[in-house]
Design a protein that fits this description.
Elements lengths: L9 E3 L3 E5 L12 E5 L6 E5 L6 H13 L3 E6 L5 H4 L2 H7 L4 E2 L12 E4 L2 E7 L8 E5 L4 E5 L17 H15 L5 E4 L8 H25 L7 H9 L8 H14 L3
Parallel strand pairs: 4-5, 5-6, 10-11
Antiparallel strand pairs: 1-2, 2-3, 3-4, 7-8, 8-9, 9-10
Helix pairs in contact: 4-5, 6-7
Pfam families: Lactamase_B, WHD_BLACT
Organism: Flexivirga endophytica
Protein name: MBL fold metallo-hydrolase
Length: 262
């Protein structure tokens, strides 16, 4: 399910290329992947998640687009988090193209089709990590751009109250169904790509259910009776997780407790 290989960005087939932003960290892994979607020979390109406000990164994205004889005609956002959207004001000064998603521009609609020259994009509502999370399916390239719903390494955070476990599990089921119709590759917002998205998504779901069982067991054991139940559960269930990510783990536990109606 995980890999420790260093990820520096790169292409996934002919239609998707990740430009890695220089914002590594416990939550962003190697950094934010800004995805450029472009069919060779076409004039238009779509950029997904311009990322943090870093001039060098934005220029690298534009340079990749220009080197491939294209121009940015649309910017898509997978969700509102700042490591995906912080640069939008500056990006708008560099690129004359509409922005959609994450609360910007015209709302993305589930099952909407975006057709730009030879590029076809299918919009999938995949709430859970955040309420507004969306993924993008490239049916002609067999690629799933999943934002933070499925990462390329480790697991994502479902942070209560914006994140919710019930919708998240349903989103994983939906993505798995898409990814197993045909062999499909994973293009995450953080971490490396994978050629078998279906396997990664299945492992994600299994891990989430295992964590949920651990929370149930901790509650049943009766030793987490404390003023802060979520923190007590974190200390028991997430003892194997570095303490610098315990705040995120606690937010996930709060989502698990809400799912269990505790």
């Amino acid at each position: 399910m995980t890999t420790e290989a260093v990820w520096r960005g790169g292409s996934l087939g002919d239609h998707a290329h990740a430009v890695l932003a220089p914002n590594p960290g416990p939550m962003t892994l190697d950094g934010t992947n800004t995805w450029v979607l472009h069919v060779p020979g076409d004039d238009c390109a779509v950029v997904v998640d311009p990322g943090p406000l870093h001039e060098g990164h934005l220029q690298a994205v534009l340079r990749y687009v220009e080197e491939h004889g294209a121009r940015v005609v649309l910017t898509l956002i997978t969700h509102w988090h700042h490591d995906h959207t912080e640069s939008l004001e500056r990006w708008g000064q560099l690129v004359d193209a509409p922005v959609r998603g994450g609360g910007y521009g015209r709302t993305l609609v589930d099952e909407e089709r975006i057709d730009l020259e030879s590029l076809r994009i299918r919009v999938l509502a995949t709430p859970g990590h955040t309420a507004d999370s969306v993924s993008f399916h490239l049916p002609d390239a067999d690629v799933l751009v999943t934002g933070d719903t499925v990462l390329g390494r480790g697991t994502t955070v479902v942070a209560h109250p914006d994140g919710a476990l019930g919708p998240y599990l349903a989103s994983l089921d939906r993505l798995h169904a898409v990814a197993t119709e045909r062999p499909t590759a994973l293009a995450p917002a953080h971490g490396p790509t994978h050629t078998d998205a279906g396997a990664i998504i299945a492992a994600y779901r299994q891990h989430r259910l295992e964590r949920l069982d651990q929370v149930r067991a901790a509650l049943a054991a009766g030793d987490v009776d404390a003023p802060d139940v979520a923190q007590a559960v974190v200390e028991r269930v997430y003892a194997d997780v570095p303490r610098n990510v315990w705040p995120a783990a606690k937010a996930s536990v709060e989502a698990q407790l809400a799912y269990l109606a505790v």
